[in-house]
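Problem 12. The chain below contains 281 residues. Write out its predicted structure in token notation.
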Amino acid sequence: MPSPFHPTNWSQACVSWIHEIQIAFDPPAPVEPGKGGFLRLMRWSTPRVATLVILSFTLHCTRPPGSIPESSASSRNGVNTQDAQAYVEEGVASWYGGEDDGFSGRPTANGEIFDPEQYTCAHRTLPLGSFVEVENLENRKRTVLRVNDRGPFIKGRILDLSRRGAQELGFLGQGTSRVRLRSVDAMGLPVALDAVSSQGDPYVVQVASLTDPKNIQLLTKELENTFGVVTLQSAVTRGGLSVKRVRVGSYTTRQDAEQAAEQIAKLLKDRGVEPFITRQR
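Solution.
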């Protein structure tokens, strides 16, 4: 019997070892899905799932970025950008449309017939047809009103509400209340003022409301010498008194109107006149 260390035995052992390696590294034969057990099914499905994942990732990375959602775009550090752009004003509000003031049924500044039961208000400069959310700072009640008239032309007041508006805000019995107003859209969401709608309704400076024709003529002539065009607007006061509103200028910007108002106040400072900035209509 040949020795185990004989060269012939070494050769046979080496051939057998190489054969085992070839068997171990032979690729597995293809197996139909659902046959051959769980491990074989995993071997079959893994490369296909990986291909789908790579394809999906590629499509996602090459897709152009979408627009930022409106809810996200409108908020920066907790501050709503629409709130920042909205017109906000605080002051004293009054109301009109009572049984004895004579305003019910009269035309408003935009031509509508005033109805005290509608959700409307008067403001000196806000565009006619715009909406404002009004908050009563004394009881925190709120309501949305539409601007359809001009006023109030009383020192210290910023808004005249319809009777219904005052009722909603809870100050019908007391006559006035301190309020905060904010420009909104028809749905009550804060919005910036529409600059385009204001272009056809320039600013004017209302100097006084007079009844005496002689005083009206004298004031008109004095103002024309310094400021140019002076217009007269017929109006009726709460007490039913017919007056002429003496107005100066036609300004495209509020800044120009404010400068004119300051000059008029200096010119007439000894007569107790306090000019108001309002709109032409």
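Discussion. Residues 7-11, 13-26, 61-79 have pLDDT under 50 and may be disordered. Students who got a different answer should revisit the alignment rule from Section 12.3.
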